Amino acid sequence: MNKRFAGFLFILFSLCSARAAWGQLQAPLPSPNATVSQTFGVTKVEVVYSRPHVKGPTRKEERMIWGALVPYDKVWRTGANNVTKFTVDTDITVEGQKLAAGSYGLFTIPGKTEWTVIFNKQSTGSPADYSAEKDVLRVKVKPQERPMRELFTIAFPEVTSSSAELALVWEKLAVVVHLAVDTNGLFLANAKDAVAKAKPDDWRTPLTAARYLYDNKYAPADAAAFLDKSLSVKETFANLSFKAGVLAGEGKKKEAVAAAQKALAMKDADPKPSPEAVADLEKKVAEWKAAK
Length: 292
Description:
Elements: H1 3-24, E1 33-40, E2 43-50, E3 85-88, E4 92-94, E5 97-99, E6 102-109, E7 115-120, E8 135-141, E9 143-155, E10 163-180, H2 183-197, H3 204-215, H4 220-233, H5 237-249, H6 253-264, H7 275-290
Antiparallel strand pairs: 1-2, 2-3, 3-6, 4-5, 4-10, 6-7, 7-8, 9-10
Helix pairs in contact: 2-3, 3-4, 5-6, 6-7
């Protein structure tokens, strides 16, 4: 290979590399992208959106937002740039109305005294392509006054095992949407499937199902069946001590003591319980005997 040809190849390679670098270079967005997610119960919600500023680093004065930059009574993308994407992995209710698991475009229609929050089939692309015919759900909510917030923010300020608040906050306004889910029902369905698919020597999965259902006082017949399943696979300190607690709760102190003593006899067997668990069960046995 002569020097001239080698030089030509070097220049060509350098140009190609530079073009590739140019193609990968991204300028900072005026409205940065963000993703927020929240799990409540066994349900996960994720929102992908962009965050416009009230003023921003290049402006000297704050902009008028509501009724100006964001007009009243017109569909808003609920952020900036592309469609705001809302994804939920189980069926939920939004302000009491059903919404199936899936991904949706989160649009809104701001009003002076009331907002319309829209879940639309269009979850990606340009907001200009919005079509009301693709709306899956619309709910009405009241805006609330809040302290100044420079960046548009979507958050989950309140969460329980069966509900969550989805808050849209910007400037001096907040719109809160209430989400809810039948966590107990979902857990029971998942538990039945998990127990059915469990390995023959798996006593932990049915015990986990039984614990949750008993603790939440839900589906007692299923809870009892799961506990019996765990015990039938293998008797351990864990499931026998839990059985003792269930019996005591039912007022069956004599049977509770018998189950607890059987559990204590296994305190040195695998899986070995913690000293704290053993001491706690011994204390309960003494209380149950005294209560006879």
